[in-house]
Design goal:
By secondary structure, this protein is an alpha+beta fold. Helices cover about 25% and strands about 20% of the residues. It has a single domain, classed as Catalase core domain (Catalase HpII,  Chain A, domain 1, Beta Barrel). The protein has eight helices and ten strands. α1 packs across α4 and α2 crosses α8. The radius of gyration is 20 Å and the shape is globular. The two termini are about 30 Å apart.
Length: about 325
């Protein structure tokens, strides 16, 4: 995908005639199907996460804003500050992946509430997901499997993209978005819809966005070429030691017509927003994240998950990955 634009892939597929190309998503897939497919695409690395294998742990605090208290009765929004455990990562199964290349960057945040509640805030640097549902995403990934000669059929991929437009926005963003200069200088998006819930049981749908207070900064190809393949942890460590590294957690409030179940669609940019709070990093490194499963379905009272099928698939997929990791598989 790196050397072929989406438009070129689609055009090449549409000019072919008489060639049977797989364009349909499978009718159903399981969480384990994804784990097995990830291994085929990226390789198997026993004892590592089956996605987002390369990453760095950090610690810090989250200062909630009282703006969210008008929508949610979560005890989170009545606190001055709560401890935060953060893991920044690269997409993929390889724990030694090259950090200079463009692609998925992720964040997982565990907020620990004084009443024992836990809130996982988990997202990527892409504002939309690659497909409207798990089946569409799985079908796209299948087209990237190489044949017996190690060759990926680009026409097959292009035909699938053309026939399944819900994958196009995410792929377009990935191709236009440069590699981040730092984990601390990238936006992260929740992509799924959640609900605030108040004392009256009223629910307000929202999507969150984590914005870097240092500003967003990408790398040109020339800049990236001068860096070591594993520069991100060292850079984050230096930034935390020399300056204030923080993010603002923002919630976009959805309108009635905004989709709840399709993470491949962005909500309009003019939706009202509120500040949920500020995340500040205090230290980088250590193994505190090793036994944390950053499942975005883990939310405290006062916040509810939606029926987004991709969101629902994450719990069993993360659970399988977690179990395999703990058993060194």
């Amino acid at each position: 995908m790196k050397k072929c634009t989406i438009s070129v892939l689609i055009a090449s597929a549409l000019t072919l005639s008489g060639q049977a190309l797989s364009q349909q998503a499978p009718q159903s897939v399981s969480a384990n199907d994804f784990i097995e497919l990830f291994a085929k695409l990226g390789g198997e690395f026993p004892g590592m996460r089956k996605a987002h294998a390369r990453g760095v742990c950090a610690s810090g605090s989250f200062e909630p804003s009282n703006e969210a208290a008008q929508y949610s009765n979560s005890t989170l929004f009545s606190q001055t500050s709560v401890p935060a455990q953060i893991r920044f990562s690269l997409g993929g199964t390889d724990p030694s992946a090259d950090e200079r290349t463009p692609g998925t960057r992720g964040v997982g945040i565990k907020l620990s509430l004084p009443d024992g509640g836990v809130y996982h805030v988990t997202g990527n640097n892409t504002p939309v997901f690659t497909g409207k549902d798990p089946e569409t995403f799985f079908g796209f990934l299948q087209t990237l499997l190489p044949d017996e000669n190690g060759v990926v059929d680009r026409a097959k991929t292009g035909a699938y993209i053309a026939a399944n437009p819900s994958v196009q926005a995410a792929l377009g963003f990935a191709q236009s978005n440069p590699a981040p200069a730092s984990f601390a200088r990238s936006d992260y998006f929740g992509i799924h819809t959640f609900f605030f819930e108040n004392d009256a049981g009223e629910q307000t749908k929202f999507r969150w966005h984590l914005s870097p207070d240092l500003g967003q900064q990408g790398l040109s190809a020339d800049e990236a070429a001068t860096l070591p393949a594993g520069f991100l942890q060292e850079r984050l460590t230096q930034e935390v030691a020399s300056t204030d590294v923080s993010f603002t957690l923002i919630a976009s409030i959805g309108n009635e017509e905004d989709t709840v179940i399709d993470p491949s669609q962005q909500w309009p940019a003019d939706r009202p927003t509120i500040t949920m709070g500020k995340l500040t990093l205090s230290a980088v490194g250590g193994d505190a994240c090793n036994n944390t499963n950053f499942d975005p379905n883990v939310v405290p009272a006062g916040i509810k998950t939606s029926d987004d099928p991709v969101l629902k698939m994450r719990s069993p997929a993360y659970g399988i990955s977690f179990g395999k990791r703990l058993s060194n598989q």
